[in-house]
Amino acid sequence: MKKLFYYVAMFLATTTGFSSCSDDDDDERHAETELRKQQEMKDLTATYVNDVVYVTYGRLADATESLYGKIETMKSSLSAGSLTQSQIDDVCNTFLEARAWWEKSEAWLYGPAEVHGIDPHIDTWPLSRDGLATFLKNNRNTIFAPGYDINEAIEQVSRNNNEDSWLGFHGLEFILFRDGSPRTVSNFSGEETAAEFAGSGVDGKLELDFALAVAGDLRDHCYWLEVGWKGESAPAERIARCQERGFTLTTQGSYTGQALLNPGSGSPYTSWRNVLATIIDSGCMNIAQEVSDQKMGQVWRCATGQANTGAEADDPNYIESPYSYKSFTDFYDNIVSIKNALYGNIDGSSYHASSIMAYLTKYKPELAAEIQSGLDASFAALDVCLQGRPFVLIASSGTKQELDNVESAMTAINTLNTTLNEAKDWIIAN
């Protein structure tokens, strides 16, 4: 009996010891996994900031800088009577290049774009043609009087224009494009023919005076985006120009790139998981929802008799890029921006080893697969739309098939958004 008690006691002591060791091993493995995840989240954030955001905003600033210079030359050529169609076409192509980089940046509109109101300042639509006609007519002999100073004109247009839709990309688009094509030499050699400008005396010369000021303001605000993210590592001349304009360069006391790379005390971002949640939620999900519900949704609901009314009423004219016929291209590039943010590169065929997609593939592969499926479906649906008529024409006379194609794209993008939300929640919890 004593011997039996001894063996039982020894057995219990041994198994208790094994259990304790097992618990210790589990805790140690969990700690090691968490340390590894922390490092991986840090690394993928560095890839996102340095290889995606910084590069995109740098190229956007380059393109708008080039656009300003080419409009300046175009303006001089018109005055000299030597303007050519190839010159106009080149300006329009440069505009579209800048536009593409902007649309490919919309998966990170948090930070300076949001806090400093840069997004609405340079990208509000629909354009008020009545308002623009009045503005140009009233300022021919003030802001744009003979011998005017261009930097003062940039400030005046930026400050005194009470319609953001006259500024930025859409003001320039109206000046440069009509019916999906670059305007012609004869268009700029005479008076503006749009009905809203009848009797205003607004001609091509005045339009290019305005376009140059708007292009300068657009360039400066794109400098601001680059500097607001990169800080002192941005080109010195761009920092100086932002300071000359009186722009506040930091957001919540820091440059956005530095804040993302240094979460915790003193940063708006509390942890690496909070950083990733911001990239997905405030960045990718924000633009996915906007494309599906607003950019495409308002027009689609109006065209199908399902328009929202009241304070949040849908507008049948809420059509992005109607003069260049590039609405669907804008939407496609918005999804490209989501892909770039998740892939950790720009227009890559596969994701970077340090990226959100790589992280999810390693730790939650089924979610990564769903995201990839959502991206593929969104691109495929938008490709169908791109092969048909421009969105602005569908808005006014869309067939059932055309509207169904738009709905399919909206559905695919909304499904992607739902999956991104699941990924964000999983990252926060794990």
From TrEMBL:
Keyword Signal part of the UniProt annotation: yes
Imelysin-like domain mapped to chain residues: 56-417
UniProt cross-references to InterPro entries, sorted A to Z: Imelysin-like (IPR018976), Imelysin-like_IrpA (IPR034982), Imelysin_sf (IPR038352)
Compartments it resides in: Cell envelope
Listed GO CC annotations: cell envelope
CDD domains the UniProt entry points to: Imelysin-like_IrpA
Pfam family of the protein (one): Peptidase_M75
Name of the protein this chain belongs to: Imelysin family protein
Keywords: Signal
Organism for this UniProt entry: Leyella lascolaii
Keyword Chloroplast: no
